[in-house]
Amino acid sequence: MLKEKPRNILGTTLQCCCVDPITGFFRDGYCHTNKIDHGTHVVCAIITDEFLKFTQSRGNDLSTPSLQYQFPGLKAGDGWCLCARRWQEAYDAGVAPPIKPEATHEKALTFIDKKALEEYYIQ
What we know:
globular
């Protein structure tokens, strides 16, 4: 039996988010998830300085490397699979980073309204 390929918020096959730096809960470049991904890292975002400041103010410093987690530290312009709830929180605060819809997993729609995501689409 073939396993169905993960789908994005556009309803098509999930595309790669970023490989430099390598992102995703599984560090394979894709924003797919499973039951052990309690953060639900499914939103493919292009990081901004405003978002980095915001998330640091919430206790999640994404700028500083943490090598034990294969985390390089992020800078503006990097692609990264964000937790759906953190993206929603940033959206509510007016600092959500833009997203790549083709690389954002459909599970994001469980937490975020599609219209909100559509406001932040980039190619």
